[in-house]
């Protein structure tokens, strides 16, 4: 039995044969033909061309400018495609002539986003933010531990990692200001999140239970939900965040298949209240819904936080069940993000609002923010989740 | 000079040659080829086939299963296509063999929805709802008269008029309940709204001023923003409405071109506070931003309300300017709705929450809701905005 190309992925490389995330790339020297690639170490494997060359039944799904057709094909096809790619690695067909250096390709937004939903699933984050935004009230609203709170964001401004983010302008009004003023946000922030990408759609009127999570969710990405705190604070009552968020949301270029994270499954925190049946995840025998993902946030190269995704109160399967329990349908390309990942410790907070207790400093023009993550893989290996990075450009004049 | 086909549209018909809204249809006896049609009286004109038969340069834009390609083509093309259709009416080419009875066609969702934003632009509605949802506070939040409050809704559950709506299930908890319960919504409501459909996209980082409204907005539809008040009341603090709205939003099958509403332009209400420059619409010489649309809401055939769109505090041009002032881009197919249209009088309220002062009765299974509207047209004519209708089906077991 051949080894998994050890010469291509050094010991400990988080993009070994147990990871194999999907992206969309073009060679820098031939940008006219975007297609699906798979990451191995510091290379992109041109699995679209390999599939064509070797008569794969999946060539038409892989030779695409977005992942949506592959994602729409459903879990049996996802597993068959992944198995075929691993077989070709075992056989030595891959990487072969199909590897391109990451330095020699451009990575594109890997999927067409249908609806984008952002949750608010970290108890630590929601508590910290509640204390800052509503200092006179209880930090958690009464509903928080009974349902995963979420809202729809702007799908049209989801951009791929590496895209610059223009500082938004907008209205803000501090409580002490006599009237609102207008200008570039003075409190530009990040939110380190994990996103889940829907492959298999569902019909209107048909809730998707937690047990069907794997049938519908294709994979995982990293998300930076850029946030203008001054704009958000003035606008968000009573209908929620809008322009404080809608200028840009960055996602990683790599979508990690759900099955690459099987070894990272972990139990979520104990529940404070009994949950309604559609949200209850304590039933004997069900797969643990938490994921042990270790995030790291860097600003201009310096690590400022290491948020643990295992601390999230609400799991992605609960979010999916909640999002559809009213009969709302899923579409291929739906993205739902966790909300800011913050742990209990001061060096585990996923946004500057919390890291600076609402006082700043905030992001300056030219700052570059990078979020990375890894998860335990099989046999002590690491599974990398890629990175989401972006640089702040000055506001338009 | 021939008359505008008076035999096809009786005197006073709101779908005469000054209206000419666009939709997408299939003949009942030939459902395999959806294409663009234009309404005239009680007929659908097959303008796609007419354009093919007569060698129109616009045949490829009209022979489409959605309006998006035509909408993406921009205002000069929209005006040229409308002029060509009116010319063919004058010449007697239309209706000719191209008319099909409305009874003999199926009407489809006329455009692919990109992002869906719902505003909250009626002062009467926001005040009434504030009194019911937040009885201990000021009815209007401090930001309300400084910016048009809005939020993103679920684009994937926008459905065309005539689609049944399944009663949603979900969590609700009255303040007096010890814990939340789960089941079919007991407070199912409507919201009578007007929607604006974006044709011409805009670039990220480039705000769209009020003066560019006509360049970007293709047309107008009617919207029923179905709302489950019990689900909404329990979930909406702090991030806004989610499952209380996301199960279904109905839109009319007909999109009325903006230029058909030129005679309906009217000044919006006087502003309480000076507005920031990007929202200021009092500048001399600018086109009035309000629209004199007269809505009617019928439940099971009985008129229950006649909301006047002219009473809306925030105009669609202000909403567009606000939505993009942070640099958020527009895509072809973006839909932004006004929020519930309510006037100052008791018979001008656009939802049951207001009509019944929060007490119900609410919608029962089997109830059918229809919203229609018309506007003053040129020379005393009426311009019809079609209708949006839907029937409530029982919750899933």
TrEMBL record, chains A, B:
Binding site for Mg(2+): 225, 245, 249
Pfam families named in the record: FAA_hydrolase, FAA_hydrolase_N
Keywords: Calcium, Hydrolase, Magnesium, Metal-binding, Phenylalanine catabolism, Tyrosine catabolism
Region (Disordered): 1-28
Biased composition (Basic and acidic residues): 1-10
Cofactors that this protein relies on: Mg(2+); Ca(2+)
One GO MF term: metal ion binding
Residue ranges of every copy of the Fumarylacetoacetase-like C-terminal domain listed in the record: 117-392
Protein name, entry field: fumarylacetoacetase
Organism whose genome encodes this protein: Streptomyces caatingaensis
């Amino acid at each position: 039995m051949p080894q998994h190309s050890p010469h291509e992925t050094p010991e400990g490389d988080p993009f070994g044969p147990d990871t194999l995330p999907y992206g969309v790339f073009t060679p820098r020297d031939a940008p006219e033909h975007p297609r699906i690639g798979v990451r191995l170490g510091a290379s992109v494997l041109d699995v679209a061309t390999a599939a064509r060359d070797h008569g794969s039944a999946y060539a038409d799904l892989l030779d695409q400018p977005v992942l949506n057709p592959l994602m729409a094909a459903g879990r049996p096809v996802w597993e068959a495609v992944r198995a075929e790619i691993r077989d070709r690695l075992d056989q030595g067909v891959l990487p072969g002539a199909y590897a391109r250096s990451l330095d020699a390709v451009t990575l594109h937004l890997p999927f067409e986003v249908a609806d984008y939903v952002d949750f608010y699933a970290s108890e630590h984050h929601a508590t910290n933010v509640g204390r800052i935004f509503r200092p006179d009230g209880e930090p958690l609203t009464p509903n928080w531990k009974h349902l995963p709170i979420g809202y729809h964001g702007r799908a049209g401004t989801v951009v791929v990692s590496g895209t610059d983010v223009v500082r938004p302008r907008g209205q803000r009004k501090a409580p002490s200001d006599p009237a609102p003023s207008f200008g570039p946000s003075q409190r530009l922030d990040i939110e380190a999140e994990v996103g889940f990408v829907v492959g298999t759609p569902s019909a209107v009127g048909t809730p998707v239970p937690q047990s069907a999570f794997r049938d519908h969710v294709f994979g995982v990405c990293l998300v930076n939900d850029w946030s203008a705190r001054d704009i958000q604070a003035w606008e968000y009552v009573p209908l929620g965040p809008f322009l404080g968020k809608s200028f840009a949301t960055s996602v990683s270029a790599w979508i990690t298949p759900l099955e690459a994270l099987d070894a990272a499954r972990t139990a979520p925190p104990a529940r404070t209240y009994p949950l309604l049946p559609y949200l209850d995840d304590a039933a004997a025998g069900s797969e643990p819904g938490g994921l042990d993902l270790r995030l790291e946030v860097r600003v201009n190269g310096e690590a400022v936080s290491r948020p643990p995704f295992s601390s999230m109160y609400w799991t992605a399967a609960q979010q999916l069940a909640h999002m559809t329990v009213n009969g709302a349908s899923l579409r291929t390309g739906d993205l739902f993000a966790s909300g800011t990942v913050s742990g209990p410790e001061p060096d585990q907070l996923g946004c500057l609002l919390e890291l600076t207790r609402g006082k700043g400093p905030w992001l300056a023009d030219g700052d570059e923010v990078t979020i990375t993550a890894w998860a335990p893989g099989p046999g002590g290996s690491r599974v990398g989740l890629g990175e989401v990075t972006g640089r702040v450009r000055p506001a338009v004049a």
